[in-house]
């Protein structure tokens, strides 16, 4: 019976290694994105609950006027938070794209080197 040996190095270099690297990059991006979303959701929930509590404290015209005045600050704060959250997501997306592009270029170079070495052999 004849034993065949299969060299897994080219398979690893051309397929498995790049797939693992991209999966790692994608998982890290997803983790950061989910963390940002959870942080934003907690912030919006806390702010909304604080607003609801403030509304429950309205007892007369003066407290109503104070509540309405605070609504302007609330709107400003929420707008600023939304802007910051959007910028954070855009930054995460740009970083992921740049890292993906670098990874693709690196993998292409490795594949070209492996192909040229296999052709020489």
Entry summary:
With 121 residues, the protein is mainly alpha-helical.
Annotation keywords:
121 residues, rod-shaped, mainly alpha
What is the succession of H and E elements? HH
Number of strands: 0
Mean pLDDT: 88
Which blocks of ≥5 consecutive residues have pLDDT under 50? none
Structural class: mainly alpha
Helix percent band: over 70%
Strand content: under 5%
Radius of gyration: 27 Å
Give the total of domains: 1
Major β-sheet profile: none
Q: Helical region count?
A: 2
Task: Tell me, briefly, the overall form.
Answer: rod-shaped
Distance between the termini: 27 Å
Topology:
Elements: H1 9-56, H2 61-120
Helix pairs in contact: 1-2
Account of the protein in words:
By secondary structure, this protein is an all-alpha fold. It has one domain (28-116). Helix content is 89%, strand content 0%. It has two helices and no strands. α1 runs antiparallel to α2 (61-120). The longest helix has 60 residues, at 61-120. The two termini are 27 Å apart.
């Amino acid at each position: 019976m004849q034993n065949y040996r299969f060299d897994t190095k080219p398979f690893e270099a051309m397929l498995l290694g790049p797939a693992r690297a991209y999966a790692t990059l994608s998982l890290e991006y997803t983790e950061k994105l989910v963390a940002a979303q959870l942080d934003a959701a907690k912030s919006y929930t806390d702010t909304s609950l604080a607003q609801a509590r403030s509304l429950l404290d309205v007892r007369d015209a003066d407290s109503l006027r104070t509540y309405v005045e605070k609504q302007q600050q609330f709107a400003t704060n929420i707008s600023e938070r939304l802007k910051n959250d959007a910028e954070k997501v855009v930054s995460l997306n740009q970083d992921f794209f740049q890292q993906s592009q670098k990874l693709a270029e690196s993998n292409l170079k490795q594949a070209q080197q492996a192909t040229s070495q296999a052709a020489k052999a």
